[in-house]
Amino acid sequence: MDRDLVSSAQRGDRSAFVDLMHPRVDGLFALAQRLLRDVDRAEDALQDALVIAWRDLRGLRDPDRFDAWLRRVVVRECIDQATRERRRVANLRVLPVDGPAAPDDLLTLADRDQLERGFQRLPPDQRAILVLHHYEGYAPSEIAEILGIPPGTARSRLHHAHRAMRAALDADARLATAGGQSA
Amino acid sequence: MTQDRDLGLVLDSFFADGSTRAPDRLMLVVTDRIERKRQRPGWLVRREVAPSRPWIRPALVLAAILIVALLGATVFIVASPRPVPGPLPFPTALPAPRTTPPPIPLIQGNGELAPGRYLVRSNVGPSTFVVPAGWQISTMGLLDYSLAPVDAKPDDSVRVFFNMHISAKDAACTEAPEPGIPPTVDAIVDDLVKEKRIAVSAPIDIEVGGLPGKMLDVRISPTTKATCPFMTDGSPTVPLFVDDADYVTDHQGPEISNGPFWGVDRDDRLRVVVLDRPGSGGNVMFIVNSADGTTFDDLVARSMPIIESFTFDTGPVETPLPVPSAS
Predict the structure, then answer these.
(1) How far is CA A157 from the centre of its chain?
(2) pLDDT at A6
(3) pLDDT score, position B74
(4) Which of residues 107-146 of A touch B (CB under 8 A)?
(5) How far away is chain A from the Cα of B192, in angstroms, using its nearest Cα?
């Protein structure tokens, strides 16, 4: 069914494209929001990504790979936007925007704040890999396909992202400890 | 914090929190935006695009305004009544009744076509053609348009271009004409025949709608390793043709113009029909494009009668015909 919709959309049928998007847009928005950490920026990025997907849909050779291709378009647009934002407000701390974090027996608010800051310090491509792995549940080989990079590169970047997150969190913990001692 | 916990579990929990539903307006906005956005041809899309550059968008808007103004002026001039040769003996007399051929439907957008003759107005003037059942207009732009069987593979089509040039041959695959090659049939075909990166058939003389030209089949040479910077996988590709429009840019990168830019990839097979337009100094170019090569013979057999039906005359006064969307 979706294959037919993809083929129709590739022939210029806009309603087919919209039909394809409706069941996917929530999931893609969740992905964009987690990558960009901002609802408004996620909405802007997803809008742009879907228009790019429409514009470039004829470049998709195999309709069965539509979902991976679409994710790639969305993630790339988010990475582009995060890169632009990173240049513009390199030192601006972006706060969580969805209100207070839900109660969680694993993470405290302080944990979340540390994670948020650590995540914001990562290069956008490493952020994307973390989200695809930990939120979407993709294996490195699947991430490689989505991002169009070699599997070894995906594995390497995931490793570096984990290491960077751990280092960032440990640094924050040390700062907190030092701040507590000097107070 | 993380010393006693598994970082993976922490990150799983961290990312689990957040929005899971898109705002309702998002799809409304996207639907509105794609209504005003035409799709790119597969060949162009398969190239990697450069990162966004913020100054491109205003330039694109300005260029789009100029193109629309130019198109409007062209349509106005073409649609203006032509002077009747010779003086009328009795200017106030009623015109004599005459037989008027039925108007030819004007195509204004994408969609499947009923069998018959159609009129398309482009930036260089009107053209008409006849389609059998089972064909559609697959793209309709200011500078080019395309036809395709409704059952065609996505990238298979018959492209109609105007005033195409041989594309630059530099390693950067610049989207600009190669200097020193005029856009005439002889010069274009001569260059294709000499181009070592492609394999071509012997050119054959052809006449379409009273315009003289040549046709030949093109594919990438099996030994070609040449590629372009936009082919991130390094696969072979050879840019062939580019239009002579001003090189307005797209927000995805300055190297991509909004005009046609066409070439061959590893699997493409093309039939190129190029016609001189005497007096204008330009040309009409048809490209029958089979994206994976396997459909080439069938596509050519179905396309050539359509190509041979083209006329480039203004013809009778047309009336707009709503074209149903393909479904």
Answers:
(1) 14
(2) 92
(3) 64
(4) 107, 110-112, 114-115, 119, 130-131, 134-135
(5) 26
Residues 207-266 of B with CB under 8 A from A: 232, 252
Residue type, A115: L
The two structure tokens encoding residue A142: 């699947």
* Chain B stretch 164-193, residues whose beta carbon is closer than 8 A to a beta carbon of chain A: none
Residue with the larger pLDDT of the pair A155 and B75: A155
CA distances from A30 to A45, A51, A71, B16, B24 (A): 12, 18, 12, 10, 14
Q: Which residues contact A104 (CB under 8 A, 6 or more apart)?
A: B13, B17
Query: How far apart (Å, rounded) are the C-alpha atoms in residues B15 and A132?
Result: 10
DSSP-derived 3-state class of residue B144: strand
Distance (Å, whole) CA B313 – CA A138? 58
pLDDT in tens, B269-294: 999 999 998 877 789 999 999 988 89
> Quick check: B150 contacting A, CB < 8 Å?
yes
Task: For residue A25, give the nearest of B22, B35, B154 by CB distance.
Answer: B22
DSSP structure class, residue B117: E
Minimal CA separation from A16 to chain B, in Å: 8
The region, left, alpha or beta by phi > 0 then psi within -120 to 50, assigned to residue B177 is beta
Report how far residue B312's alpha carbon sits from residue B110's, in angstroms, rounded to the nearest whole number. 21
pTM for this entry: 0.49
* Whole-number Å distance between alpha carbons of B22 and A43: 8
Residue A61 in contact with residue B155, Cβ under 8 Å? yes
DSSP-derived pairing of the beta strands B319-320 and B105-106: parallel
Distances (CA, A) of A17 to A23, B36, B259: 11, 14, 24
Which chain A residues have a beta carbon less than 8 Å from that of B33? Answer: 47, 51
Angle between helices A25-36 and A66-88 (to 10 degrees): 30
Contact between B13 and A28 using a beta-carbon 8 Å cutoff? no
Q: CA-CA distance, B200 to B207, in Å (whole number)?
A: 20
Q: Does A101 reach chain B within 8 Å, measured CB to CB? A: yes
Question: Read out DSSP for B155-199?
Answer: T-EEEEEESEEEBP-STT--SSBPTT--SSHHHHHHHHHH-TTEE
- In total, the C-beta contacts within 8 angstroms joining chain A to chain B are 161
Paired tokens of B109 = 């957008």
- Residues 6 or more apart whose CB falls under 8 angstroms from that of B212 comprise B185, B205, B206, B275, B276
Cite the DSSP H helix spans in chain B. 7-16, 24-35, 42-45, 56-79, 185-194, 296-308
Cβ of A8 within 8 Å of Cβ of B13? The answer is: no
